[in-house]
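Sanity check

After download, print the first record. It should look like this:
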Amino acid sequence: MSRFDNEVRVTLSVLDRLIDYEPEVSREAPASRSKNLRLLKQAVRRDLEWLLNTRQPPLLPAGLSEVLGSAWAYGIPDFSTLSSRNPSDQLRLKRALEFALEAFEPRLEDVVVHVDTTDTVTRTLRFRIDARLKVDPAPEPVTFDTTFQIGNGEFRVKGEA
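Expected C-alpha cells:
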C-alpha cells in the first residue's frame, strides 16, 4: 500500500489544477497533501485579494435579499472616501469584509476580521482576517494580513503562502 493511500487528499479547484506554475517542467510528480494544501492557501489568498478589490454596483436593489449573495453583488462597496481614523467607518468596512467573505468565499468558515487601529497617521487601514479553511479531515486555521490603501482603494492580502 502506498503511503499516499492513507493520506486525506486536498483537491484544488478546476482553475488551480489547470494553472501550470512550472511550465518548463514537462513531467511532474504527484503533489503531496502538504503541497496541495499550500497551493490551496495561496489560491484562497489570491481570490480574497480579487474579491476585496472588486467594487459592487453603487445601488443594490432594496428588498431583494437573494441578490446580495449573487454574482451581481460580488465584491465590496466603494470605501475610498472613508476616514482611517473614524471608528464608525472602520466598523462599516469591517462588517462589509466579513459579509463579503461569508457570501463569496465558501472555502472559509468562522471568519473574524480584526481592525488594527494603531496607525493613525497614514491613509492605510490594516486588518487581520482569521478563519478556518474547510479541508478534510479537519479545518485548517488560516490568517491573512490585509492592508487597504484609502487613497487608491486597493487591498493587499498577505499570508498563508
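If your output differs, re-run the checksum step. Summary of this record's structure: Confidence is low (pLDDT under 50) at residues 1-6.
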